[in-house]
Amino acid sequence: MIDQVDGLKFTGEPSYWPDEVKTVSMANSFGIASFAPDWWVEDIRRARRVVREGHQVLIVSVVASRSGTRDTLIEDFVEAALLAKKAGADIIEANYSCPNTPDDRVTGDLYKSAETAGEVSRAIKEALGKTPLFVKIGYLSETGLSAFMEHNKRHIDGIVAINTIPAKIVDAFGNSTFCGEGREFAGVSGWAIRSMAHQVSRNLVKLRDQVKTELHKDLTIIGLGGVLVAEDAMHYLDAIGTDAVESCTGAFLNPNLALHTRFDTESVGKRPSRAEFELKTFGKFLSDVILHPSRPTRLRVDTKRRRAVVE
Questions:
Q1: Other Cβ atoms closer than 10 A to 311
Q2: 130-139: per-residue pLDDT in tens?
């Protein structure tokens, strides 16, 4: 069990390109660069035009660029979220974690301040109305996650975890891989953070179930971290129980990763038998009826992929 990630250090070479992707890690050190709103709003509109209605959703990630005070931080998050919604986003993802923004740790480490994050979430959700709000966070221990959930659960519809983890990146001679002051640390993704990402997802799944019992509310958990091949994605869905999966390093190396996951026969072959699937589905249904007798239960069942979600 990992409770902190301070002091991590990796060797990284800019010219390296892997032959085998299953154990690859990547580091980035470019912060959150962005064009002016007029440009990225139009970019969202272009993306909206190619999204297949009924088959895909458009999630737009936004972050504040001003954080001088608590009020300016909130105002900037809300403004960015509303611009993204107007441009056609189905879901807004508020990014509360960026490990390489050394000049703005308030925004980059917002997920570590549960109470402040909760205030931001409340303001964004009130502005968005019915548009779902997801938040992206970095690594948190079980205690930290519980605190984050306590302050945010009433205002959010989903959590994406985890973002990259900050680590010192050096070359073979021990010198900083990335040139320039303040770039000793960079965000690490891929295989190196997989175990930490799995830990956070498992804890979030447990908290999701608690929130459902307490608030009669369904939170979506999106697993992220170490998803390099189809089997990694299926592990999040089947073994851990997340509702969906995102990929950074894997998708960078293989833009067709999502298609490969959907058509990967080996991963599908590892799914439970039809009898096991039906028993598990019935168990979920019965459990939900007992826990929520006055609330109609909906089951979303995918017999091909052998997944069932109680809604």
A1: 9
A2: 999 999 999 9
Q: Does the pLDDT at position 74 exceed 90?
A: yes
Question: In this structure, how many other beta carbons lie within 10 angstroms of the beta carbon of residue 274?
Answer: 10
Percent of the chain with pLDDT over 90: 56
pTM of the model: 0.81
Average pLDDT over the chain reads 86
Following CA atoms 155, 159, 160, 164 in sequence, which dihedral angle do they give, to the nearest 10 degrees? 80
pLDDT of residue 307: 52
For residue 71, CA distances in Å to 34, 74, 76, 134 come to 22, 5, 9, 21
- In angstroms, the Cα distances linking 286 to 36, 95, 279 are 51, 37, 10
**Taking a C-beta distance cutoff of 8 angstroms, is the pair 185, 169 a contact?**
yes
Cβ-based burial of 266 (10 A; exposed 0-12, middle 13-18, buried ≥19): exposed
Cβ atoms of 118 and 152 closer than 8 Å: yes
Q: Does the structural domain 9-265 have CATH classification 3.20.20.70? A: yes
Element (H, E) at 169: strand 165-170
- For the chain, what are the domain ranges? 9-265, 271-311
The structure tokens listed for 299 are 């089951």
Q: H helices within 60-161, ranges in order?
A: 70-87, 105-108, 114-128, 142-152
As given in the structure block, the two tokens for residue 98 are 């960026």
Cβ distance 196 to 225 under 8 Å?
Answer: yes
Give whole-number Cα distances, 278 to 77, 235, 243, 297, 298, in Å.
44, 20, 19, 17, 15
Could you tell me which of 128, 123, 126, 120 has the C-alpha nearest to residue 136?
A: 120
Distances (CA, A) of 31 to 45, 76, 102, 278: 24, 17, 9, 46
What are the beta bridge partners of residue 221? Answer: 159
